[in-house]
Specification:
alpha+beta, Rossmann fold, D-amino Acid Aminotransferase, Chain A, domain 1, 3 domains, globular
Length: about 425
């Protein structure tokens, strides 16, 4: 079977790797990703949001199915255009993808269908109404642009903002500068707890959840610095997390199932990957946001553990006949290597050298992200360069292995050494124990 994978990054490299043994891969990517280009029968370097160009390439190559990696092509209606051309896709339609691309749509869905796990929120497009609300808002605020910002538009009082007045200033800027592409902003209450992610395959009616993952979005060690697209993540061998109970996990999955049910009634079937970002509070899981695709880096934690046929899962998604999926009982740690200066002004055009053979011999996986390949040389862009993923029997063994593998990557790069360490994980456990007591 011929499958088109749309996307440039490490997430798409992981998707291609999961499909490569069963399908012939074709690729549309914004940069020449070294990992994807090796796996693909044919590829083109072109804008991923150029729906006409992508559909033309897919039709010319006679692909049987498409898998859409990032969010921007979903917002551009790529799935709709492919379906019009008779090519089914693993990815939601533009309307269904509003669960990510329009945060006000997501919150209203929870309200209208009484889905548990929601939080207090308001949406504003009038700066004066925003000011009046914020003057009386007695919770610490979270400010979110309504549209897409690559995971870098959210600012939180107590982390990035001093108080609600500074939040008001940023929220007003979001409206006036149309940050995220919309002249509107979402204000939410800040929920205290530990974040975790559950991703699920969905055929529009059934969902099949994957192991839970914890991402680390802050740029610097100790959870300091600006929010990024994700500096790394870990998963545990029991498909939970050290601070997450089976009931917490099942409650999160139930919220996601009810969301898919609601989307089906509002827009039609949601077919693809649903990513739920939750905050585990003292009162249980609260939904922070949804993504309409795999997480990056979270995809790299779960896909290497998949024992079931990825091709059969994809066929089940597009046919509306999704069954189940099984995963190896291993822990994983993923660490991103990013250019110096990331995320504000990452060094672009610097050559990096990756000893893939030594990394592979250690049992560690290399996934290339936003790099450019020219001949046999690999150069940084201003974004994340590559991810290393180590599977092992437990988190701490995986972390040690992953950290050791970073020595085989040379260049003007840095990474968070603390992801998956005992010190940081036990800090998470203690935090939840304190909240629940």
């Amino acid at each position: 079977m011929k499958i088109l994978v749309v996307g440039t990054g490490a997430r798409e490299h992981a998707i291609c790797s999961a499909l490569a043994d069963e399908a012939t891969i074709y690729s549309v990517m914004g940069n020449r990703n070294p990992g994807i280009s090796r796996l693909a029968r044919e590829f083109t370097v072109a804008p991923e949001v150029d729906t006409e160009g992508v559909v033309r390439f897919a039709s010319e190559k006679g692909v049987d199915m498409a898998f859409i990696g990032p969010e921007a092509p979903l917002e551009a209606g790529l799935v709709d255009a492919l379906e019009e051309a008779g090519i089914p896709s693993v990815g939601p339609t533009r309307d269904a993808a509003r669960i990510e691309t329009d945060k006000s749509f997501m919150r209203k869905l929870f309200e209208d269908y009484r889905i548990p796990g929601s939080i207090t929120y308001r949406v504003f497009s009038d700066p004066e109404e925003l000011r009046e609300f914020m003057e009386d808002f007695d919770s610490e605020a979270v400010v979110k642009p309504v549209g897409l910002t690559g995971g870098k538009g959210v600012k939180i009082v107590g982390e990035h903002l001093r108080d609600n007045m500074e939040a008001l200033k940023y929220a007003t800027e979001v409206i006036e500068k149309r940050i995220g592409g919309h002249p509107s902003v979402v204000i939410e209450e800040r929920v205290v707890g530990e974040e975790f992610t559950v991703q699920a395959f969905s055929d529009g009616e059934h969902i099949v959840p994957m192991p839970a993952v914890q991402d680390h979005p802050h740029a610097y060690e100790g959870d300091q610095g600006p929010i990024t697209g994700g500096m790394g993540s870990y998963s545990d061998s029991d498909e939970l997390l050290p601070f997450l109970t089976q009931k917490d996990y099942e409650d999160a999955v139930e919220i996601m199932q009810r969301t898919v049910d609601a989307i089906r009634k509002e827009t039609g079937p949601y077919r693809g990957i649903l990513y739920g970002q939750f905050m585990l509070s003292a009162d249980g899981p609260k939904l922070i946001e949804y993504n309409a695709r795999f997480g990056d880096p979270e995809a790299m934690n779960v896909l290497p553990l998949l024992e079931s046929s990825m091709l059969e899962i994809c066929e089940g998604i597009v046919d509306g006949n999704l069954k189940s999926a099984s995963f190896m009982n291993l822990a994983t740690v993923c660490k991103y290597l990013v250019p110096e200066g990331y995320p504000e002004s990452g060094v672009a055009g610097a050559e990096i050298k990756v000893d893939e053979k030594k990394i592979e011999d250690m049992g560690v996986i290399t996934y290339y992200a936003a790099v450019n390949q020219e001949d046999d040389h690999i150069y940084t862009s201003s974004s994340r360069a590559l991810a290393l993923v180590a599977p092992a029997d437990d988190i701490y063994s995986a972390e040690e292995l992953c950290e050791e593998a970073t020595a085989h990557v040379k260049g003007r790069l840095y990474h968070r050494r603390d992801i998956g360490t005992r010190e940081l994980v036990e800090k998470r456990i203690k935090h939840m124990e304190d909240l629940r007591s």
